[in-house]
Structure to design on (266 residues):
């Protein structure tokens, strides 16, 4: 069975090809939840508290393994290179979801500690332990695109569709609306009925307009130009999301919608 692959800043931490520079990572602990910070309201008279707000602040990922070489001198070089690989801050930590899958979850990570115990008998190999301080959420290394109405034009308002989102935490999509035809379209509203998030753009639309709602970067652009809006940038929740799209037009119209998102994980 192959080992579970792991890379930091595009340097593999699972190498066996060179007997002088072997890194064997045998224990990757990353399925723990991120640290959750609570804002509490405590009653001055009664026991207990209420949770006012909660947020995830950081995640700790640890790995253990062995640095193995074919001589003492080469082991010293391997240790130096290993520490140099782990030097950058806020670099990509890519962990294969299971051995041999070829699919990864990426965390933004910085190394907090590196432990390489010194034992007199360990001339050509030494154990190591590394602790990474990570941003709280991991993301897939590639995005997923959903075309509403199976890619066909939408010609009714309101239009409703339920989509399924991968991952274990809410994600910020990029929503692209292409206006194919219109009579007098003056507004477009995108609503996620699952969490009550919505955003509305009120302007005079024309055929061939492209409206981009980038929830990750919090921008709305019409044909590349910044556009005013009301509401909030909607999140997509893991699992099913009930979407409601409303086009304000006195006559016939047609448009298409694609939603691009990156699965996000706790």
């Amino acid at each position: 069975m192959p080992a579970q692959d792991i890379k930091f800043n595009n340097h593999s931490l699972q190498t066996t090809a060179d007997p002088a520079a072997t890194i064997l990572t045998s224990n990757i602990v990353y399925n723990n939840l991120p640290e959750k910070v609570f804002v509490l309201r405590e009653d001055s008279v009664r026991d207990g508290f209420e949770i006012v707000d909660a947020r995830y602040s950081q995640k700790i990922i640890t790995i253990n393994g062995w640095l193995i070489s074919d001589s003492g001198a080469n082991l010293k070089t391997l240790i130096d290179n290993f520490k140099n690989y782990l030097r950058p801050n806020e670099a990509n930590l890519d962990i294969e979801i299971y051995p041999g899958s070829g699919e990864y979850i990426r965390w933004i990570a910085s190394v907090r500690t590196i432990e390489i115990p010194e034992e007199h008998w360990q001339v050509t190999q030494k154990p190591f332990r590394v602790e990474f301080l990570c941003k709280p959420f991991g993301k897939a290394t590639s995005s997923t695109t959903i075309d509403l109405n199976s890619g066909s034009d939408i010609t009714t308002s309101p239009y409703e569709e339920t989509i399924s989102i991968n991952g274990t935490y809410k994600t910020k999509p990029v929503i692209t609306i292409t206006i194919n035809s219109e009579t007098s379209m003056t507004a477009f509203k995108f609503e996620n009925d699952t969490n009550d998030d919505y955003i509305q753009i009120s302007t005079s639309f024309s055929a061939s307009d492209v409206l981009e709602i980038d929830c990750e970067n919090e921008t709305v652009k019409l044909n590349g130009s910044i556009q005013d809006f009301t509401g909030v940038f909607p999140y997509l929740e893991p699992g099913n999301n009930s979407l409601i799209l409303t086009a304000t037009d006195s006559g016939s119209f047609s448009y298409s919608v694609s939603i691009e998102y990156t699965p996000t994980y706790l």
User: Anything to note?
Assistant: The mean pLDDT is 95. The CA atoms of residues 192 and 243 lie 5 Å apart. DSSP finds one helix and 21 strands in the chain. Helices lie at 72-85.
